[in-house]
Amino acid sequence: MDKPSDTLQITYFGESRRLVMTFGLINALTGYINTPLDLIKVTNNPELQELFLYEILSDRNEDGVIVQGAKTFSLDPETAIAVINWAVGHVNHFFIQTLTKQQNQFSQLLALTSQPSGATGSQG
Q1: 3-state DSSP call for residue 66?
Q2: Are 1 and 98 in contact (CB under 8 A)?
Q3: Are 89 and 4 in contact (CB under 8 A)?
Q4: Mean pLDDT per segment of 10 residues, for the chain of length 124 residues?
Q5: 100 CB-near residues (< 8 Å, 6+ apart)
């Protein structure tokens, strides 16, 4: 799976706005997802969609603290769908990268633990 674009240009209440996906924003979004499989729920769960839109569209200070909450109720549906799909793509990519890296690390650890005790080079 290709990584989605780091930025998304939208029109937000008549003004052009450039959204940027950051590690902090991915962390905020993954906080609403219990498992990678739950990511599917975002596309059909209005409460999760609202939470995603709020996290993404709210104005934040340099520490990531929301200083002005997003106005999502009157957001046009096409923009909302574009923003949600962009975010879901990023969270999905993050989960795949993380799980792949963990699987590789687990395989390496498993290989080490399956070697005879003298093969690791450690002196007991």
Answers
A1: strand
A2: no
A3: yes
A4: 91 93 95 87 92 96 94 91 96 87 67 67 52
A5: none
Q: Which residue has the tokens 């650890």?
A: 109
User: 54, 10, 36: which is closest to 91 by C-alpha?
Assistant: 36
- Residue 114: how many CA atoms within 13 Å on its side-chain side? 6
The rounded distance, in Å, linking the Cα atoms of 106 and 82 is: 36
Domain boundaries in the chain?
Answer: 7-114
Report the C-alpha gap between 119 and 101 in whole angstroms: 25
- Which regions of the chain does DSSP assign to beta strands (E)? 7-12, 15-20, 59-60, 66-68
Q: What is the pTM of this model?
A: 0.78
